[in-house]
Design a protein that fits this description.
By secondary structure, the protein is mainly α. It is built from 18 helices and no strands.
Length: about 475
């Protein structure tokens, strides 16, 4: 487990500065672009994200699994062939029907930007393929560098274009530019692996495509339903309300996810690699799953509490008064995002044990339930009611799926529930001063000072209770200091 946390630390130490700077740039971006611009950008991303699932037929998820690197190299080749062909086909389609798509979504201005979807799909899919290959080769420094470049370059480009012309095109081009640079850097890092690609052949590609056929048969549709479940909300909000409401939702979702993505994303990537390795050696995932699950709970629970207490204050102060409503959305969505934070990294267990059909059933249930919750909520004509029903439904569904993974891996669910309750109690007790100053409507600066103090106190408790995490946090901080000196 020590090597696991060490690899997570490498990713975190390499990405922390970029994430912090990215968050610091959000107030600038939020003051350049309007909620409506963010709404159209979110719809563009939702379309691109869903289409990206089809590009490699989910074969990229199998890059980690073969015992030898030559077989993995053949899978990489298969993925690149597929994503190139699919991107060309998608491009041909979007040239002819952009107006119809914009009209269908009740967002006619979106049609002006759909021509860029194929390029985003290609770069995004290529990033995932290279990411899985680089992780298999245990080059987490390269992955961290790519994330740094992606995060900072996209934000800077969005600001630069936005200063010249304020429209969703600036957000789209910034997003494109970030992935273009990240892909380029990871391709450069692959030069030392070129000898592993000497044995690529159509025969090997065909053999491995058949060997891992469960990925296009089950994983692709499971991924699709999962992405649809996550991206269905923007589509329904724009259909029943407006792109401005989607903009508020998008900003709330992004800023809720950002603080947790740093740890959750790194954990997910390393967990998939390490768990695949453990599965090939011992076949027992219980110990690594328990350690990761408990650590995600202890780290993620307090940000949820903070957003639920002062979400609207955070958004209106840092992003401007125009984003107060997004802060209200964030308070409602915080429990759902917390459950996603725990579930997402360990959901790769379905792929590792090749039970993608179970994951597909769960994701299908997610889509149906979210659709029903949003549809019922929209009948009241209030997006707050719709999002509240959505959040409650999502917490129940993701919670059940989380417990199923634990049970499938022979983990005692009652012990994990006790661990969650323990840290919820600790988080609530430590956050009491913040609840008091919020209730008394004291100065916003006092609220933030208290928020910082209770956050610091909570993570001191976490470090005290988790010796291994404390040691590796010290290593991470030392690494960051050394990089800053350079």
């Amino acid at each position: 487990m020590s090597s696991f946390i060490n690899n997570v630390s490498k990713l975190v130490s390499g990405s922390l500065l970029a994430q912090v700077l990215g968050i610091m740039l959000y107030p600038v971006i939020a003051r350049i672009y309007s909620p409506d611009d963010f709404g159209l950008f979110q719809l563009f991303l939702s379309i691109s994200t869903i289409i990206t699932i089809f590009t490699c037929f989910s074969y990229e998820l199998s890059i980690m699994l073969p015992e030898n690197d030559e077989d993995s190299a053949n899978i990489v080749a298969l993925c690149i062939i597929l994503l190139t062909l699919v991107s060309i086909i998608i491009g041909s389609i979007f040239v002819f029907i952009p107006e119809q798509i914009g009209s269908l979504l009740n967002a006619p201005h979106l049609s002006d930007h759909l021509i860029f979807v194929p390029l985003v799909v290609f770069l995004n899919a290529l990033f995932f393929v290279l990411n899985f290959w680089t992780s298999r080769r245990v080059r987490y420094g390269a992955v961290a560098t790519a994330r740094v470049v992606n995060s900072l370059s996209s934000r800077v480009m969005q600001i630069g274009i936005g200063v010249v012309r304020t429209s969703p095109i600036g957000l789209i081009f910034g997003y494109l530019f970030g992935y273009l640079l990240a892909d380029f850097l990871m391709l450069i890092k692959m030069r030392s692996d070129l000898h592993l690609f000497n044995n690529i052949s159509l025969k090997n590609i065909r053999r491995l495509a058949i060997r891992y056929k469960r990925f296009p048969i089950f994983s692709m549709w499971s991924q699709l339903t999962n992405r649809v479940a996550l991206q269905l909300t923007p589509f329904m909000l724009v259909y029943f309300f407006s792109s401005t409401v989607v903009g508020y939702y998008s900003m709330a979702n992004q800023l809720l996810v950002l603080p947790l993505t740093l740890i959750g994303g790194a954990t997910s990537q390393v967990f998939f690699q390490k768990a695949s390795e453990v599965k090939n050696i011992t076949g027992d995932l219980k110990n690594i799953l328990v350690d990761v699950h408990r650590r995600l709970i202890s780290i993620g629970v307090f940000p949820m509490i903070i957003f639920m207490i002062i979400g609207e204050d955070l958004f209106s102060f840092f992003l401007g008064s125009n984003w107060y409503t997004a802060g209200i959305y964030a308070k409602i969505m915080a429990p759902w995002i917390f459950l996603r934070f725990i579930y997402a990294p360990i959901s790769s267990v379905f792929n590792i044990v090749e039970k993608q059909n179970i994951a597909l059933c769960f994701n299908f249930a997610f889509v149906i339930s979210i659709f029903v919750a949003l549809y019922i909520g929209s009948t009241y004509g209030d997006p707050l009611i719709a999002l509240t029903l959505l959040s409650v439904t999502a917490v129940l569904l993701w919670g059940i799926a989380d417990l199923y993974i634990l049970r499938m891996s022979d983990v005692r669910c009652i012990e994990e529930i006790k661990h969650l309750i323990e840290y919820l109690a600790i988080a609530f007790a430590i956050s009491l001063p913040l609840i008091v100053v919020k209730y008394l409507s004291l100065s916003i600066y006092i609220i933030f000072i208290v928020a910082f103090a209770v956050t610091f106190a909570y993570y001191l408790v976490v470090m005290y209770k988790d010796t291994t995490l404390r040691i590796h946090l010290y290593t991470t901080v030392k690494t960051i200091k050394d990089k800053l000196r350079i």
